[in-house]
Amino acid sequence: MRRTLLAATFSLLACAGSGSATLTVALETDLQPFVDFDEVDVQWIRGDAIVAMERVEVGPGDDVSRGFDLATFATGNGRAEIAVRLYGSAGEVGRRRAFVDVRGDTRAVILVSAECGLGEACPGEGDSFDATECIAGACFPPTCLGRDCLGGGGSCDVDADCDPRDGCSSGRCSRGRCVVTPDDGACAAGQRCVVGVGCTSGGGCDDPGPEVCNGVDDDCDASTPDGAEDPMLGESCDGDDADLCTRGSFVCVGGALVCEETGPEATETCDGTDEDCDGLIDETGDEAWYPDEDGDGYGDEARVELTCERPGPEYVSRGGDCADRDENVFPDSPEGCNAADDDCDGAIDEGGCVGCESHTTADAVFLVCRTSRRWTDAVGLCEGGGYELARIDSAARQAELEAAFAATGISGSFWIGYNDRSTEGIFRWADGSASGYDNWASGEPDDGGTFGTENCALVSSSDGLWRDEGCGSEERYVCTVER
């Protein structure tokens, strides 16, 4: 067997001075050492913190079936919380949590049963809310250590089989096992209940000790605040936050030590110091690095990494690239006329199309052009920039078109893609598709003009209404593209 002190969370363990009490934690289990497990962790816990933890390696020669001593802690008198975990090659194989009332030098044998596994099933149906610990297949409160909680030989059919006959404990039958719980409230002041023994004043107020934080009158003086002589009171501690800095101190609240944190949570920055107190310097930094796949000097913000060192040669310190596989698209890139957001500012082709102004909505981009062209030429110019001559196929799109006129400040009559060039009287969009929406002005389309040749649609910026016009007329035009 070999013991290794793994960690002491605090610089001061509970030293009660002369006559201080100790707790020896022993293990009893039907799990086989060096077969089922080869290592045991035992922890002494105060409040939400680990006071001390010891790791014990076990071998085939260690007898764990009759109470095998694991560790001794200088707890002082009072209630101590102990956690025991057993580990094998496959990981954790058993665990227990126990509350031990320490009076003088105390030895507690904690039973870990193979049939309990990791004890996730406790409390089960019909168990009390505090029956969180599994012992020999039944659920018990953590104040029960081992076989001392099993009454009537441990097996039962009804609750009457579990009467401990000690005057202060109560028994019940749970899953064929007796669960016996001591009740100190059934005893006189200063006494405590011991299963199978009854009320006893041993370690009570005829044996005063230091007043530690446990909700018990340890020094037999009701005027002394609970925990007033607890060696951990006021000691530095780390509260419930992400850092490991001991920027808090222990206070006694409700019979338990609680770490009262002071100051904000510490985060690691790139300054050569260990701000979060984990023993590592600048392991997680505040400098942003972005992968730059296209080599344009800007990276993808969606894949940012916060480190103090550049993660690799493909990372850059500038983000904001909205198309990281296109080297021509990045913040401050010249905006072209291509129905794309070249400069990653959320707008498309603003200032990039000569003679035109763009207006971007949630689902479309409008390119309002002040230069005049024939209808067929306007179709080609729109398509050359990745657009189409405007398709206005709903009332919502009509409203967006009118908003584009207002936003760009360009007015007049504008070609849209609606036309009946193929079949007189049957209007379709420039790509040949039909539409279930139109916004003709009164009396339109009238196919006026010489020999009835008005086959292409114009929209007026002043009222948004459509009229037909000869396709050879030179007019302003509007292009659209879906986003």
From the structure above, extract its key features.
27 strands, 5-stranded antiparallel β-sheet, 2 helices, elongated, 32% strand, 4 domains, 483 residues, Immunoglobulin-like, 5% helix, mainly beta, 7-stranded mixed β-sheet
Largest sheet: 7 strands, mixed
Annotated CATH architecture of the largest domain: Sandwich
> How confident overall, as mean pLDDT?
81
CATH topology label of the largest domain:
Immunoglobulin-like
Would you report the number of β strands? 27
Q: What is the helix tally?
A: 2
Radius of gyration: 41 Å
Q: How would you describe the shape?
A: elongated
Model description:
This protein is mainly β and 483 residues long. The chain folds into four domains: 2-160, Sandwich (Immunoglobulin-like), CATH 2.60.40; 234-280, no CATH class; 287-333, no CATH class; 356-482, Mannose-Binding Protein A, Chain A (Roll). It is built from two helices and 27 strands. It has helices at 375-384, 395-408, and strands at residues 2-7, 23-29, 39-46, 49-57, 68-73, 78-88, 91-102, 106-112, 133-135, 138-140, 169-174, 177-182, 192-194, 198-200, 236-237, 248-253, 256-261, 288-291, 305-306, 315-316, 356-360, 364-373, 388-389, 413-419, 456-460, 466-469, 475-482. The strands form eight sheets. Strands 21, 22, 23, 24, 25, 26 and 27 form a seven-stranded mixed sheet that branches. Strand 6 and strand 7 (91-102) form a beta hairpin. It is elongated, with a radius of gyration of 41 Å. The chain starts with a strand and ends with a strand. Residues 2-19 have low confidence and may be disordered.
